[in-house]
Amino acid sequence: MNHKPSQDxxxxxxxxxxxxxxxxxxxxxxxxxxxFIVHRHIYTELERIPAFYALYGFIxxxxxxxxxxxxxxxxxxxxxxxxxxxxxxxxxxxxx
Amino acid sequence: xxxxxxxxxxVFFIFAALAPLLKGKLKILLLLAPLWGGxxxxxxxxxxxxxxxxxxxMVLELYHVDRLSLLFGYLFHIAALIALIYSLxxxxxxxxxxxxxxxxxxxxAVFAGDLLTVFMFWELLAITSAFLIWARRTPEAIRAxxxxxxxxVLSGVLLLSGTIxxxxxxxxxxxxxxxxxxxxxxxxxxxLGIKCGFPFLHTWLTDAYxxxxxxxxxxxxAFTTKVAIYLLARMFPGEPILIYIGAxxxxxxxxxxxxxxxxxxxxxxxxxxxLGFMVCGIGVGTALxxxxxxxxxxxxxxxxxxxxxxxxxxxxxxxxxxxxDLGGLYKTMPRTTVFCLVGAASISAFPLFSGxxxxxxxxxxxLEQEQTIVWLMLLFASAGVFHHAGIKIPFFAFFAHDSGLxxxxxPLNMQLAMGxxxxxxxxxxxxxxxxxxxxPWEHEYSPYDLTHTLTQIQLLFFSALAFVWLNKQGLYPxxxxxxxxxxxxxxRRLLPRTGGWVLTMVTGLRDQFVQVGQAVxxxxxxxxxxxxxxxxxxxxxxxxxxxxxxxxxxxxxxxL
Lengths: 96, 560
Description:
The complex is a heterodimer of chains A (96) and B (560).
Chain A: H1 14-37, H2 52-75, E1 76-77, H3 88-95
Chain B: H1 8-18, H2 32-44, E1 51-55, E2 58-63, H3 67-86, H4 93-110, H5 115-134, H6 139-170, H7 183-196, H8 203-208, H9 214-222, H10 224-235, H11 240-259, H12 263-284, H13 287-318, H14 334-347, H15 354-368, H16 372-398, H17 412-430, H18 433-436, H19 450-473, E3 483-484, H20 489-528, H21 538-559
Antiparallel strand pairs in B: 1-2
Helix pairs in contact in B: 1-2, 1-4, 2-3, 3-4, 3-9, 3-13, 3-17, 4-5, 5-6, 6-7, 7-10, 9-13, 10-12, 10-13, 11-12, 11-16, 12-13, 12-15, 12-16, 13-14, 13-15, 13-17, 14-16, 14-17, 15-17, 16-19
């Protein structure tokens, strides 16, 4: 196993990543445009908002991440909060 | 060759008994258990069932078949087959024996015709599965398994109590619609709720699943919770409280999943999130919703199993699954990466993948019932599940920054198992009718209309856009090694602490009593054996004062 980071992977090339992101942004724009062209079935009033699903997905995820970050200050503890890490030797002693 | 009256769990139990005898390459024969059992079930389904077991005056129905139990029966055979292939390379026979017994118990539970039989398999599920966690043999895993067993057995006790109470009221043990009325049904409800991962009762799952062996977690993710979903669908369909419990279950785990570092624990949280969709569907209780719930259970076993398998492969090769220390694994584990992406696309409900064709049924059923707020919660959870299970898991494990790790590709049998699950995910996604025709309730549904497909893709792409944007801005929370407090805090911190406090109080009180007792006995002993020096003991001195006071009192009363 080689532990030295190397730059030999396909996704290590910044150009590849840039192109992937460009295509991705392009699809996002197309999806919003499609929302105005395609006639969607409307089940609830909320869905009348233009590009409702796109907006909802984006806002939901941003809020989710911010809320989760805030929760970290409340919930995050040290890794051995519940119990100190045990070695196998300790278990042996417990059995004795 | 084919037999209609043999309960399918027997096949698993026989092979479990044979498993220790099979060494090396012969272990491949174990695959016959789900293969032969599943084929037998398929070919004899029309006249299968009716096997009973008489104990005294009681007749237990061991093999009861209808469309609902048949669907779960097939599912568990498929899951067992995948899990057995995945664990072929494991030399630890304990895991294979317990895996087979565990799968057999799950199959037994879904074909049980009465509550007492359900209880028997319920307890077998608890015990056999615990060995899959103990089998990891690390101190943390052993302790987690001990906690796991306590919770599971508690659930069994509640189930048995509810069963006995129900039997006293109705005189019948038959497994049928119960509905929430009276104490007995609540006991059953909570027993199922524990195994289903209802909020605050869910922590056994997120505690133990990430600590089991790589193959153990795969078994665990498939059976226990799905048996509970099956029983909920049978006993409590259309119970409105389930809608809200389910909605809560879809939402709260995703916050934990975003900040959790152990990627198998992330998957455990997203397992609760997926169970939430099923519970919600059962709560709505229409034919469409119930079909959606059980179809989603079917798909979830496969795609969640696939994700757990990919993380199990990483765990096998790297030795841990901490998001903070992984990354760049696609370079040396390309096939595992592809399988993980298929699993991620399925759980995120991308069109043409299996999650889409079942999750959309639950969503459509909610809209039909005009449960707009719950629908919005589930939509939020859909975006969230894509965010953590769909992007975070593959991104941090296989892409992100290069961790420098260059592990070997997963063992061949693991790749085969993952490949089989991946093919099923896509096959069901592309051709949902194959799954729909097995669904128990009559309802026509087609997931692929323009509205559904477009809106789902919009939702997912813009969730991904949020991830890209947050990552570019550096706003995405970094992966940190940590423990995040959950409801388990109550019994892993508060209970031991208060227990310890009460114990010191009680022992303190006891010591004080002992001291007082000793002082008193000492005094008595001194009285019995007066000290020869003639000195007056404190007691007698006090007595003297009392006598003097009494005499003064008498004198005073005489003179007045």
